[in-house]
Each structure stands twice: as structure tokens, then as C-alpha cells.
Amino acid sequence: MSYLSTGFGLNSYEMIIMNIAVIADIHGNLPALEAVITALERLQPDYVALNGDLINGIPFSAQVIDRVREFDWLVIRGNHEFYYLDFGTEREVPDAHDPERWGQLHWLVNHISPEQGGYLATLPDERTFYLPGAQPLRMAHGVPGRNRVGFYHEQSDEQILAEIRDIPEATLVSAHTHVQINRHVVCQDDPSALLDAMPHPDHVAANGRCARHRWHVINPGSVGLPINGDVRAQFALLTSVSEDVVPGGWQVTHHRIDYDRRPALAEYESSGMLAAGGVISRLFYWELVTAEPEIIYFYRWAYQHGYDPDKSIRPCLDAYIEATGRDQYVRERDPLFSGGS
Ligand SMILES: [Fe+2]
Predict the structure, then answer these.
(1) pTM for this structure?
(2) Which range marks the domain in which residue 222 is found?
(3) What percent of the chain has pLDDT over 90?
(4) Total domains, the chain
(5) What's the CA-to-centroid distance between 59 and ligand 1, angstroms?
(6) Residue 265 has pLDDT above 60, yes or no
(7) How far is the CA of 225 from the centre of ligand 1 (A)?
(8) Using CA atoms, how far apart are residues 2 and 134, in angstroms rounded to an integer?
């Protein structure tokens, strides 16, 4: 926390400046998390918020849970925490016991202790920050109430508005898509109609109208599994500023931190996750190598070519590799083979 003096004489006052570091989508990548922790020690934010998906994908999920619990961070649950929490209950995904499709999840369930699971079970699904001298800030892994909704650069304002139009806070911090976003979205509803419907605009939307005129939508990017083509560990620092500087009152600085991915990549084999997890573990490995959306590529290709990967995933991957040469593409970029990091 720091103070900014504004004005002179009797009209002067001090504005409190708050800094929140937001990290998200670690996905069990302990080396990436350690690199971000080192960066946070240098930045010294007032708060650290972890916006979901601590676990699953990279073989250090249990270690990530333990490391996160060493800090007084504000931790929010993501959809991958629910893959774990729902398994073995009536909420689990269809065919959850199929080892070909869900072996990755089975490995995860076997490597998280009941005590660690209890920690995940009691996390909140969203937070709203009301910090002194700063504008309210809403945070959820997707959007409040839906943790699988996320935002991409390619989306139109209208597509984003459809997901956020009932959110009363001016700033929404999301995650989930593993890409860094810093975007202002304006609702084109007639402002006078908005005022008629809601003379106090900080209340919920009425009659399908927007809850406010504009929003600031932020995604810090992914610590452990970015898919924006940059393999570095990513996060964001939010700084409270005046509305004149940034509408909504929060300025975003995105960070990207170099780290050595080889220990995480090597752990796939040595931990047994690659053998147990099958196709999905392999696709996570590919994403860690390429920082490209390998799982989305695979599913998109499968459906376009008449396959159902949820029914028969191994033959589908074989056909995908045969058609695209994607395994060779990944191998050429793999630091365990190329000597990079
Ligand atoms: Fe994620």
C-alpha cells in the first residue's frame, strides 16, 4: 500500500494506492509457481489472489496445494478443482471411470490426500474486493456462478457482454482461458433507458438490460499452462488508480516470467502420470511444450472428421497424429529433446 498526494493546500488529500497480484491456472506446475513466487517477492503486492485451477494437467498438483497453503493468499476454486471434487459423486463427468478417457483424473485423485481435498472443498468460488480508496473488483474463475465461461481476444464485445451484463461491479477478473486479457467493453443499451430502469446503477440488471454502461475485463493469463504461444509463467498486477486514468479504477500490468520447464516435463514420465493418464496427459504435455491449445485442436479436428473422442479416444489420437504430424511438431519444440528450457 502506498499513498499519492493530490492537490495543494486545503484541498489536498492522499489517495491510497493498492496493488493486487492475480495469479491463476497453475495446473500443478510447481516450477512455474516458484518462478512467480520469486517475482511476487520482488513486487511486494498488498494482496495476492489465486483465481482458480491450482491442480490437474502437470504432475505436481499435491505439491502446489501445499505450497499455496503456506501463504495468506485469497484462493478461489476453478473448474479443475471440481473435476477432482465431483469424482466419485453423482456430479462426476459421464463415463468418469473409463481409464482411456479419464486416466489423468484417476491419477490425480490418487495423488491428492483427503486432507488436501478438504482444503479444495472449502474454497470459495468467487470474491469481491472492497479495498479502501479503490473501486470494487469482482473475481471469479469464469464469471460469477459459471466457472467454464472465459474470454478470448477474438470475441466481439457483444459476445462478452452476453456473459457479464448482469454484473454490477465495473471490473471483472476472470481466468480459465489461459490468455492474458485487458479489455474494456461498453454496453450499447440506451443510457436513458438504463437510468429509467435503475436509478441506482450499482444494482442488478433489470428487464434484460445491462447492469452498467461499461466493464473492465481482465485475465491474468496462466501460471502453469499458457496457450497464447508464450511458454513463460504469466500473471497480472492490478493497481488502483483514479477513474480518469482507467475506467473502473484498476490498471493492469501483465507479467511473463522465464523458468525452466524441464523438471515439469520430465515428471510426466517419472511420476507415472503419462502412463496412467493416456491421451489427455499427453495433450497436457504438448500444451506445456508449445503453449498452444493442443486439447482444443485435437477435439476440433476429431469432431470435424467424424470421430467421437469421448467414446474412443486412443484411435482418435492415432488418426490425429497421422493426419497432422502434431507429435513431430511438439517434439521439435520439446526442451527435453532440443536442449532449451
Ligand atoms: Fe485452467
Answers:
(1) 0.92
(2) 2-257
(3) 82
(4) 1
(5) 15
(6) yes
(7) 8
(8) 12
